[in-house]
Write the structure tokens for this entry.
Amino acid sequence: MKKLTYTHNAQAAAVIARAYDTPPLAYVHSYGCQQNVNDGEKIRGVLLDIGFGLCENVEQADLILFNTCAVREHAEQRVFGNVGALKKLKEKNPRLMIGVCGCMAQQQHIVDKLRASYPYVDLVFGVDGIDRLPEILAQRLSRGKRYLENPSERNAVVEDLPIRRDSGFRAWLPIMYGCDNFCTYCIVPYVRGRERSRTPSDVLAEFRDLIARGYKEITLLGQNVNSYGKGLENEAGEPVDFADLLNLLCTVPGDYQIRFMTSHPKDASRKLIDTIAAQPHLCKHIHLPVQSGSNRLLREMNRHYTVEQYLDLVRYAREKIPGVTFSSDIIVGFPGETEEDFCATLDLIEKVRYTQLFTFIYSKREGTRAASMPDPTTHAEKAARMDRLLKLQDSIAFPMIAGLCGQTVRVLVEGAGRNPGTLNGRLDNNLVVEFSGDETLIGNYAQVRLTGSRAALLLGETVQNETDKKE
């Protein structure tokens, strides 16, 4: 694996400056996962570095860039719909540049479709193109021709990319890229490439900088954070794993909390559980995607664990981490799923008792093994199963959430609530509470007494004399 370092491209910046009478404006929209959101922040940082400004309205933009997701068909349809809506805007302003980048652009059939059916799209490049964006834009402007890059994989990690973060107190921090798991339903290894871990020293340096600048919640990102460190060594020459990295980061002084996603159950070790239990900076919530409660389907999905192993890990975590909560991802209607398979998933949900579930009806992805599997179950049957699953989850989670009422908890205040005059914040266990309070609390920790709940939303009130504020 190569390590590359981003440097300012003065030549590209000069080309851009000559092409516009005033600094051009860019509109960047990211779809999909937190990794995509972080990529979008880096895209904005690179654009600012070469002379672009940013805008929030496509009507004002000189460059419109969609940073895309390929995990589900619906996400792709949204992108094509939004790109199609820009045709009239391009007709009004021929100098407008329109670009599609990210995971969708890592698929040849998508690039071919954009090339043939969307002639007004000027730029197409994949997930590894962010550091090359200055060169790509300069080439488009100087040659006046479309720049449509065919998918390719670059076995490298690029450090020191400029970034324009969306928040001043919550930050995404990638620790690795790509995936080696090749779950049969998942397109990620094909569009994000194979696993590449950042060095502990590079992660630590970025983490220290975030804490020094006052960030209070850092979420570590990876397609499978539990496999962090493969092929890496620490300063003493010893292998390093995810638990080692967590312990290293927790040595940084400060008032902050660390979350991470996403964890793969096959790599979630007891060492990791012990680390979460021992480190106060680590949130006591684990997102542990199970996907199915059927061992037969888990084999078909290429998940490399059994339901029994999964439940053993959950039991161990509950023994070691008082009050730990779990969330998970579940796919309904995977090819060949029977009623027996589905009932096994319901049984697992009853045993684990998740506080949150992220559920999806199976989405066929071209190029994956599951795409060629027989899938006789109708969409109506899958939707009916989904409805049953959601009702079961609500019957479990809502009473659990209501049972928290009466506690006083520390909350990082994230922003305005749904109702006028309210704020919302996230508990250590990843649940959201809405409470009345002054906007000056946003970005600070506050002590909140939980007074009620509404479905999955907690309600509360600030405990004024215990509120933590920035000095």
